[in-house]
């Protein structure tokens, strides 16, 4: 009888441990595999700040990385999905391109991830524009850097009038 009690206690302990570890592993894996970043897009964040007729444009970008990782958690492959909404465009505005740059706030940086958006693909109507781009390849080492230090990267949208960028926002990791 004593032997049966010890075996029953060990079985309960093993079952309890198994259930605890599986419930804590799943959310962590999901969040780290698909990090989400946001950027509040403002003309005042551009370098130099926008002061012309498009200075009233505001927007938001949500960027989701879909990553594959090795056993150590390092990114081995990545793609990005961009969901962008903008408002406040004056009549006649044309969105040309949009992308992630590498540089801290107040500094102009090189493009590191393009949305592959081309002029004419985004319609501006009643001052509003939005677009989604998905499956955009991102270099694994670059994705790792963005995940580790999102504040060193910014997203911006360019227009015909403001070819250097009309609205810009620093990436912030939201999950």
Pick out its properties.
23% helix; Immunoglobulin-like; five-stranded antiparallel beta sheet; four-stranded antiparallel beta sheet; alpha+beta; 2 helices; 2 domains; 9 strands; disordered N terminus; 175 residues
Describe the largest sheet.
5 strands, antiparallel
Helix/strand/pairing class, anyone?
alpha+beta
- CATH top level assignment of the largest domain: Mainly Beta
* Beta-strand residue fraction: 35-45%
Number of domains: 2
**What's the overall geometry?**
globular
- As laid out across the biggest beta sheet, the strand order is 6-3-2-1-9
The average pLDDT is 86
Question: What proportion of the residues is helical, as a percent range?
Answer: 10-25%
Low-confidence sequence ranges? 1-31
> What Rg, in angstroms, do the CA atoms define?
22 Å
What do we call the CATH topology of the largest domain? Immunoglobulin-like
Count of alpha/pi helices = 2
Q: Kindly, what is the distance between the CA atoms of the first and last residues, rounded to a whole number of angstroms?
A: 51 Å
Counted beta strands: 9
